[in-house]
Amino acid sequence: MVKKGLGVLFAVFVGASVLVAGCGSSSSTQAQPSNQGQATEPKKEVTLKIGAAPVPHAEILEFIKPKLKEEGINLDVVILDDEGQLNPALKDNQIDANYFQHVPYLDSVKTEKGFDFVVTTKVHVEPIGFYSDKLKSKDDIKEGAKIGIPNNPSNEFRALTLLQEQGLIKLKDGLTTYEATPKDIVENPKKLEFIEAEAATLPRALPDLDGAVINTNVVLEAKIDPNSALFREGANSPYANVIVVRKGDENRDEIKKLDAALTAPEVKKFIEDKYGVAVVPAF
Predict the structure, then answer these.
(1) pTM greater than 0.85 (yes/no)
(2) Are 164 and 188 in contact (CB under 8 A)?
(3) 230-260, pLDDT tens digit by residue?
(4) Please, are residues 56 and 274 in contact by the beta-carbon 8 Å criterion?
(5) Contact, 158 vs 239, CB < 8 A?
(6) Which residues are paired to 98 by β-bridges?
(7) Torsion from C-alpha of 163, 131, 63, 84, nearest 10 degrees
(8) Which of 38, 173, 191, 260 has its CA 20 to 30 A from that of 209?
């Protein structure tokens, strides 16, 4: 009888011990944070390579770098010595987008070069202007004056259109492809002589010319005061500089974030404060 009672008590004691141990184990587990000892995964960062002209394009991109960094995008700004290689670089996947050109320029080269690109946003206009080391006003342009103009198709048309707007020449009707050369001039009352040259060389050529029509980014790079233009395009210019990507990449999340950052109010203020009349926001 006694032995049997002791056996029952012993069994009860063992069972209770196991139950207490099990409860203790459960309490201990609940007290431990589930992620204790695990390292927090770093936020994944995406690198976005943008080919750009040095001024003002690369400067504007540098301004938005911190904003994109906060959104997990490392903006890598690529500047090539020859801006004409920025479209081939995009085609060959060396960069993710470029920011240096306007739509008329892109339209003038994309078919010939086989560029299957998409424009995602307009950022700014650089009003092209007429500059001179010798003349003080448009009225000083004499008969036979030597006038420099850019020699790439779209900017040559743009320069000649500006001169037409000032009453200096008249182009033939029906020019609808943003392309023209001096051969398309039908009226030239002052018998102006046109010197076609690479846009980047025109500031250096000013001492040998009576004047030249020069792109504003070239003017800024040459440290010429854009306010010194004798005349320039109006604010309604169709030559807004744009972000260009390969077709299909326009839906990439990082491209959308790039566009949003470039068209934010603080970028508009940055452009207006830094460049004045030389660069006009297009958004």
Answers:
(1) no
(2) no
(3) 999 976 788 999 999 999 999 999 999 999 9
(4) yes
(5) yes
(6) 51, 244
(7) 70
(8) 173
